[in-house]
Amino acid sequence: MSNFKIFPVFLFLAFSIIGFSQNGSLYGKVKYNSNEPAVSTFIVLNGNDISKETNSNINGSYSFKDIPYGTYTIAFYSLNDIPKTVTVDLALKNQEVNITLEVSALDEVFVRSKTVQQKIEEKGFAVNVIETKEAAIQSIQVNELLDQSAGVRVRQSGGLGSHAHYNLNGMTGNSVKVFIDGVPIRNFGPSFSLNSIPPSLIKRIEVYKGVVPPHLSDDAMGGAINVVLNDITKNELKASISAGSFGTYRTDINGGYRNNKNGFTARGSAFVNYADNDYEVWGDQVAVALSAGTPDVYIRAKRFHDRYRSQGGKAEFGYTNVSWADKFLAGVLLSNMDQQIQTGATMEIVYGNRFTEQHTNMYSLEYAKKEVIKNLDISAFASYSRLNRKTIDTIATQYSWLGYPTSYYNDPDVWATGAEAGDPTLQKDIDETINARTNVAYHINDNNTIQLNHLLNTFTRDSDDPMLPAAENALKEERNYLKSILTLSFENSAFDEKLRTSVFGKSYYMDRTSKLRTRTSNTSNSTIIIEENNITSNDFGFGGSISYSISPKLTVFGSAEKAIRLPEANEVFGNVAANLNASVNLKPEHSNNYNLGFTYDNLKLKEHTFGITANLFIRDTEDLIMQFPTGSNEEFFENSNIGKIYTEGVDFTLNYNYKERLFFSANSSFFNARDYNVTYDVNGNPITPSYERLANTPYFTMNYNLKFNTQNFIQKGSTLSTYTNLLYVHDFFRGSSVLGGSGKTVIPSQVSFDAGFAYTFPKNKISLSFDVKNIFNNQLFDNYALQKPGRGFYGKLSFTIL
């Protein structure tokens, strides 16, 4: 028989075999009804004498490959959800089966936050995730929660409402960016800050140290704090009220409504804060002359001009979890603040009349949709905010720490300048900010994603001061600032999700223009002129992260970045209300950042569970921007580039729990930030750097937290939680011979010990807490020896209305 005749027979047999033994693949995605991916769902396939098991990956994706055509049952099991089983007829080469799991109401928040936390920690960045569910019922500020986290030091200049900035692994000030739901917090105004937002409005806080994930988009060179607010998509209404020492009162309410038929969603929150901040201060900056010509006497005195009031409300309306959008919300935020000003940059100058008033209106529009088209996710946010600020300082009376005007022969002393902080002022500032953020992600497949992120921020300020001479006030000032950051990134997972890598490149563009009044002097007179300044910069940075799960419990991670940080508008243009002078010639910061660490979690020894995370880091920084007191009395602040600073350090966290009742955590951070600037002698010869420590920067901190939960205490279904927290800050230099500074040379070591309890009544509707802070009434300092509150007692009542 010829080959030609044999071939049709062979072909027929081949197709017959294929027809009787065709194999295909089942694949799809698993998500919760909240639209979150169901990570690590256990999936079992049965049928045709075949049984297979798998788990969904970080995106909720799963697949069963090379299985014969036929009918199968697939069962889906995830922590605290309602198990689901479906029947599938496999008749195609590749068949998609997508599943939505229903989460029980009691466990929904826990499941969602847990899966999101896993996704964050598996990206390879040096990150702490702070859960706020339990802290929400305590009398505690968000800044206190952050201060208990490894590698974080919150630098606050006083009590409630005082200015705060954040130190992450040696990087500080505006090098550390703060976000609310991924939006830079500067757009929300000063009255909507981490100092004023109640923990009950927050779902979690993500603290990125050093290298920051691309989706945050901003120029966060030293790290980032991203506050994720509660994403209310069901009908609820909660409120709390608290009161405590130093005239402190706080109340908040938040709630939401969602129509399950059409997806219409409305949610809102509001808060009111008040504090007299009349706590006691003492030390070598609290001195008075009891009579004319006598030496200063050191005393213990109460702050007497430091009242803080703020109110704010935020409302959003739109649609959530509908076919055309995961989120489409229009929002409005209104906030107010008025604040008395007690001191200048240090405690050596005391004010008795100076104060500021501020209010902010912000309007926003947000859209997000996964799978707009196949494998393409889009999210966008745009906002416009208008801040009106007024600084009032028109009385020249001098005050002392005794709380009343200084006087000689019963006549009050007055400042020769005509006001307490310089010339009399009623300056009004109008700051307008436009912010637009866009994120686009394309999932090439389950293991590879490419993202494009863009942030555009514009700022303008108009100022007017009727206290200025008419001719001077007629010389109008201008301040304009534009920042654009474009990020392209690629993410990959391999080896069954064990290896995760991310690489990215960033383009930074800045254009700022100012026309500011300045005084020129000569031997005969002085003249006021307008000085113009225009600076643009165009920089490029890049970086990446990697993590590898050696086992389900042990993960190693690393990240590196060539980072740029553009000066902020307030740093460049100043802020009269904050005693901050303009620094129009500030240059961008540049830093090479490196992190290397590991996490060993969920190590069980019978009923004991341990976990440890450690991170080594290096920051090699050029043109670091720092804020320093200036003037003979150190009354004002001014920002400066201080050149080359090299930092290396380590932080670690240890967690332990026993039977999920006794919880202990300890963390410590140490870094060595040194001055590497080369100076020159009178002949132009280079001088070896001093290698001195960075001034006014705490470099060694420890924090210990112990908590014990008791169920069914007094009442069945109730929970009693008792807790203590100990914070230690090692002494550090206030100034140095290289970086300047005067007065108090060393900020002494500090120990703060807090304790309290929270009692949650049955049905979880009402909680009552009581806290004692700084029990030993120790002297606590932060920025340039500005003293913080002593021992205080605080109570809080939280309740669910709906």
UniProtKB/TrEMBL annotation:
Main location: membrane
TonB-dependent receptor plug domain mapped to chain residues: 124-224
GO cellular component, one term: cell outer membrane
Keyword hit for Ligase: no
An annotated GO BP: siderophore transmembrane transport
Domain (TonB-dependent receptor-like beta-barrel) ranges: 309-775
Coiled coil: none
Subcellular location(s) per record: Cell outer membrane
Keyword Metal-binding attached: no
GO molecular function, one term: siderophore uptake transmembrane transporter activity
Keywords assigned: Cell outer membrane, Membrane, Receptor, Signal, TonB box, Transmembrane, Transmembrane beta strand, Transport
Membrane topology: Multi-pass membrane protein
Pfam families: Plug (PF07715), TonB_dep_Rec_b-barrel (PF00593)
InterPro entries xrefs: Beta-barrel_TonB, Beta-barrel_TonB_sf, CarboxyPept-like_regulatory, Plug_dom, Plug_dom_sf, TonB-dep_rcpt-like
Membership in a protein family: Belongs to the TonB-dependent receptor family.
Name this protein carries in UniProt: TonB-dependent receptor
Phylogenetic classification of the source organism: Bacteria, Pseudomonadati, Bacteroidota, Flavobacteriia, Flavobacteriales
